[in-house]
Amino acid sequence: MIKNLIDIESLSVDDIAQIYTRAQEFEKGIRKSNHINANVINMFFENSTRTKLSFEMAENKLNAHKYDFCAQTSSIQKGEELYDTINNLSAIGMDVFVMRHIENNLVKELSEKKYYKDIAFVNAGSGTNSHPTQALLDFYTMKKHFMNLSGKTITIVGDIAHSRVAKSNIALLKKTDMNIRCLAPENMMGEKIEGVSYFTNLKEAFEEADIVMALRIQRERIKECIDIEEYISKYQITKDNLPYAAFLMHPGPVNRNIEIQSDVLEMQNAKTILTQARNGVYVRMAILDIILASMGL
Ligand code: CP
Q: Is residue 2 in a domain?
């Protein structure tokens, strides 16, 4: 039974299958859930469009009460520690805390503390290390398209080192029989993970790839100077280098003409990117539905 969603590593293959099936039921309209007694608060300490709004839509569709926490106008500005803020919000009646934060381990650490009453945490993106709901919606999108992912090859291309999306996707895809490749310049490769093949040459990395997952360069997390022109010349996805039948994915936001040539976004291959955004609602509904049910809400 899933009680919190902090990272992919804590999920079993059965948990992932349960989320997949439930998301499909929500998408097909064959499951309706009513969490009228649940109070869900969205606490985003970093910018977001897709994750925040799709959580809000999921909460509305589940008939939960949703609240938006604004750090800038909150009493955190008066020096209150986040732990104390959450404890007070739990006393007020909040049940689930959907949180995005710049620090890698903060959501996990907060989830391990004791509060006024039982509450649950959902990680909506933490630092450079974890974005589990993104990986789950990416998996949902791939599996719905291919049905059987066994033996399929995915090439993740871009700023792997600073990407929580890449790390959570790799953690999830390692639970499947897919071939996982990463393509990046050396300074964006990050720590190498067992079971993943690493490339610095685009032609080799794209050879026979079924799925190409592009990533944004996380400029806000990179201190050293980056040579964007060199990146574009070696790693930008173009009409010429994208394998003809490859399924092109991107978690968003896309920086047009940096990681992907603008024209490519109009190709059939790239239709997936908006499907990912749409699927985020069903997958987040499934996650919240499972957690709220486990809390008796
Ligand atoms: N993919 C993703 O996390 O997008 P947002 O930053 O817009 O939420």
A: no
